[in-house]
C-alpha cells in the first residue's frame, strides 16, 4: 500500500484532466464549482491490459474538434476524441524488421495543430520518436478506424544510446531529443536537420568520462526555442542557450535522486521539477534559485507535471497512483485523487473551462426562468381576496356570547368558593 498523509485541502477551481496509466487506461477527472470543487473520476476509457500501457500522450488544444493522441507499449498510436474517448484512427508504428515493439517503444509523441499544416478536416499529423532514435512525421487520414499511414519524413536523431525524452516548441518548428548516452540535440522539423547539440561533459579529476543521461527536457518558453531545460539521471538540472554556447549556461543539483519530470511556467523563467523520490519544487532558472518545495510530499516517483494554461495550478502524477493538484502561488496541495494504477502522464483539457462557464450561465438562466414561471403561476392561482366586513348584528351576537361565557365562569367560581367554606366549617 502507498504511504498516505492526511492533508486538509481547500478544493480546486473547475478543471478537466486526463490521466494515463501502466494498464493502458485513460481516466477523466473533473472538478466543478467556482471555489472548493472536489475532483472526481467521471469516466474511464479502455480495458486494463499491460501490453497497452500508455508511454506517451499529446492533446491538441484547439477550440474546435480537439484530438488526443496516445502511444502504447504495443507500438500502436491511437487518435481519440478527448471529450468522449471515441477512437478515430489507429496507426501502427511497428517496423517490418525483427525488432519487437517493446525493444523500440515510442517515448516521444506530438500531435500537430491543423492550422499550421493546412490539412483536410479529417486529417492529423503526428511526430513519434522511439527509444533507438527513429523519428518520423506522418499524416493520417481519419476515414477508417484502422489505418497504416505512410510516414512522410523519417530520420534518426542518434547514432548510439537510447532516447528517453523529446519535446516540440510552441511554433512546432523545432524539437529536442535526449537520453541515455545521447546529448540534448535540436532539430529543424521542416528540413529534418540537426541545428544544435550539447557538448559532452569533460572528464573528472581522475580522468574518468561519465556520459550524460537525460531523463526529461522542455523548452523554457513557447515563444523562444533557443532556451532549453533538461533534467539528468544524476539529479542535475541544466539550462542550455542554443544561441550562446554548447555548454550549460546554468547547472545545479536538486536533492539526491534522478530528475523525472520538468515543466515550464507561463512567465518564461520558472520551472517545476519532480524527482524519483517524490519531491516537487519550483525554481527560478535565471539564477538557479530554489523558490520552494510544494507542501505535501508525494509517496512515489513523479513521472509527469502539467501546467494549466489559464488557472494558477499544476497537476502531478507518478508511481504512487495519485493525481495531485497544486497551487503555484502558495505551493499548497489543493486536492488529490487516488487512481489505483501507476500513472505515466497527465494533461489538461483546456476547453473545459469555457464549457463550464457556458453551462453554468445556461443553467443559471434556466433556473431563473423556472423561478419566474413558478412565481407567475402562484400569482395566477392565488389571487388576493379582501376580508368581508362583519355587520352590526354579528358583532352584537359575538359580544353577547362572550358575556354569557364570562357569567358562567363567575358562577362556577362562586360555587367552588362556597363548597370550600362549608368544608372548613365542618372541620371546625
TrEMBL record:
Gene for this chain: LOC110418174
Q: Where is this region: Disordered?
A: 367-428
Naming one, the record's GO cellular component terms include: preribosome, large subunit precursor
Q: Which GO terms describe its biological process?
A: ribosomal large subunit biogenesis
Q: What PANTHER family does UniProt report for this protein, alphabetically?
A: NOP SEVEN ASSOCIATED PROTEIN 1, WD REPEAT-CONTAINING PROTEIN 74
Identify the CDD domains for this entry: WDR74
Name of the featured protein? WD repeat-containing protein 74
Q: Which regions does the record annotate with the repeat WD? A: 295-336
Record keyword Repeat present: yes
Keywords in alphabetical order, please.
Repeat, WD repeat
**Organism domain of life:** Eukaryota
Query: Which residues fall in a coiled-coil region?
Result: none
InterPro entries recorded for this chain? Quinoprotein_ADH-like_sf, WD40/YVTN_repeat-like_dom_sf, WD40_repeat_CS, WD40_rpt, WDR74/Nsa1
Q: Which PROSITE patterns match?
A: WD_REPEATS_1 (PS00678), WD_REPEATS_2 (PS50082)
